[in-house]
Design brief:
The relative contact order is 0.15. The chain has two domains: 77 residues, Roll (Ubiquitin-like (UB roll)); 70 residues, [2Fe-2S]-binding domain (DNA polymerase, domain 1), CATH 1.10.150.120. A hairpin with a 2-residue loop joins strand 1 and strand 2. It is built from five helices and five strands; from the N terminus they run ββαβββαααα. The longest helix has 16 residues. The chain starts with a strand and ends with a helix. The chain has a five-stranded mixed sheet, with helices on both faces. The protein is globular. By secondary structure, it is of the alpha+beta class.
Length: 158
């Protein structure tokens, strides 16, 4: 199969790669670019483990073709921290033990960040609704919701 050149921006950096026409963005990120934060949980867009931002929109990278990212801006979990300084959501998730195995965590963090950028003061119901596309098989969701709310409060006061 012919490979196609793609130029895009990932986590603020211009990036070029070759991919097959039928190759998912998730596979490109993990296998071609070494960005292994996004995980394949289901491969059908039902679990949210592979969530990334594409042009300011939350998407399941398993459902986007790599070639569709031509000229796009992609944000992954690898771009969430600023150097060694964790994003408040990342730090609070660790402090409040809002994760266990970690498969769902990158997608949940990306989705929660997208929520807080749109709504910095969500209700618990709004957080639950926004994260409904992210499945976690290990934790109850209560610690996740609490961590998002704690980080939101911290971010509002900063």
């Amino acid at each position: 199969m012919k490979t196609i050149p793609v130029e895009t921006t990932i986590n603020g950096d211009s990036t070029e790669f070759l991919c097959n026409a039928d190759e998912s963005l998730l596979d490109v990120l993990r296998d071609r670019l070494g960005l292994t934060g996004a995980k394949e949980g289901c491969g059908t867009g039902d679990c949210g483990a592979c969530s990334v931002m594409m042009n300011g929109r939350l998407v399941c990278s398993c459902l986007v073709l790599g070639v569709e990212t031509q000229g796009a801006e992609i944000e992954t979990i690898e771009g969430m921290a600023k150097g060694e300084e964790l994003h408040p959501l990342q730090r609070v998730f660790l402090e409040e033990a809002a994760l266990q195995c970690g498969v769902c965590t990158p997608g949940i963090l990306i989705a929660a960040k997208a929520l807080l950028e749109k709504n910095p003061d969500p209700t618990d119901t709004e957080v639950r609704y926004w994260l409904a596309g992210n499945l976690c098989r290990c934790t109850g969701y209560d610690k996740i919701i609490k961590a998002v709310q704690t980080a939101a409060a911290e971010m509002r006061s900063a």
